[in-house]
Design brief:
alpha+beta; 13 helices; 14 strands; 19% strand
Length: 367
């Protein structure tokens, strides 16, 4: 089990997580504050997982855990108590795991004092993975209750909390299903970048859609650009999920390598997006659950931005105007690259609402 786990994560049984990953956990900001709904994200490779969970925490607090109330406001995310924080985290983790298990089953990994694996010379010991104990569930409510009862295992620094959730996610999906999800472009879920392991798109999609498709386009691609059949189809996104995904990267754009996110991820069931902005993760969301189902509501509306970084001390309110198009006024083609004149957050939003004017409402744009 441990060897297959390493292979699907790293592509090798000799790689192990570094200190940054090992200390990563799910830590909320101060309860009863304007950011009491928010997790503190690390700057390393685990931040993508933390912010994907953050998006699902927002989903729970706004749209799932408020007893079906249709009309919600930002106040639902303020003044969250410690108990409500733990409930929201347990719900978010269980929602992601249950979706990965095809809404039929889920698995949760915890650490015990005993070792369940006898390592060989082809496996590098980390004194953690060998002690992981697996709990399987066939009912979502039972799994969520179990996670809630063991929530400290995911909140306390130094207990490999984010790694435990990642292991739980893999076993919920199962190794066999993951191998079917992946394609020739992505043999495993993590890649090395600047001395750290970061999440590949397949892992992001697994957390968002329940399926580890390696690409952001809709459906599967059977043919290459010349119309010839591919040896193996490229796997894209097959369903709309509750939480969407937006991607903007200035460097990739300059090299013509910025992936075009398909409508399945751009237009989720609920107005919440995990955003990959220059390889930094944040969450955009609206409190209006009908925003994406009524085009009239997309003329002028507010989005809220949370970056996960400690420097952010309030939820940023962005007003989106999709009809004025005055953001381009005074910037002709000969006046330089528009993408260099506007914050990357704005350019990310415009991948969904092309040409939108964006008002930061007094906040100084910070990325």
């Amino acid at each position: 089990m441990a060897g297959n786990l390493r292979k699907i994560l790293f592509g090798s049984t000799f790689h192990i997580f570094n200190y940054e990953w090992k200390k990563s956990h799910f830590k909320f900001r101060e309860p009863f504050s304007d950011l009491s709904y928010a997790l503190e994200a690390e700057r390393g490779g685990s931040s993508a997982i933390q912010m994907a969970v953050q998006a699902n925490i927002i989903r729970y607090l706004l749209f799932t855990g408020n007893n079906g109330t249709e009309s919600v406001c930002l106040q639902y995310l303020y003044d969250v108590s410690p108990k409500k924080q733990e409930e929201a985290l347990a719900a978010a983790l269980s929602d992601i795991l249950w979706s990965a298990g095809k809404s039929q089953s889920g698995s949760v990994c915890l650490v015990s004092t005993d070792s369940y694996f006898t390592p060989s010379t082809e496996y590098k010991v980390d004194n953690f993975t060998e002690r992981v104990q697996l709990f399987k569930f066939s009912e979502k409510e039972t799994m969520q209750k179990f996670i809630y009862e063991h929530i400290q295992c995911f909140k306390e620094e130094g207990s490999h909390e984010v790694i435990l959730f990642l292991y739980s996610l893999i076993f919920s999906r199962t190794i066999d299903r993951l191998r079917e999800d992946l394609d020739s472009t992505t043999p495993h879920l993590l890649r090395s970048s600047l001395g750290n392991f970061v999440c590949r798109q397949a892992l992001l999609n697994l957390m968002l859609t329940g399926r580890a498709s390696p690409n952001v386009f809709n459906g599967n691609i059977q043919y290459d650009d010349q119309g010839s059949p591919l040896p193996v189809p490229l796997h894209g996104v097959l369903i709309r999920s509750d939480v969407g995904y937006l991607h903007w990267n200035r460097e990739l754009l300059q090299h013509g390598k910025l992936p075009m996110v398909g409508s399945m991820l751009k237009t989720p069931k609920l107005p919440i997006w995990l955003c990959n902005i220059n390889a930094t993760y944040s969450v955009l969301f609206s409190t209006n659950s009908s925003l994406l189902s009524d085009w009239k509501m997309e003329h002028l509306f507010d989005l809220y931005l949370y970056s996960g970084q400690p420097a952010q001390n309030h939820t940023v309110i962005l007003t989106i105007d999709t009809h004025s198009h005055h953001w381009e006024e005074g910037h002709g083609k000969g006046e330089g690259d528009l993408e260099k004149r506007f914050p990357s957050v704005e350019m990310t939003i415009r991948t969904k609402w092309e040409g939108a004017a964006i008002d930061w409402n007094g906040t100084v744009p910070f990325f």
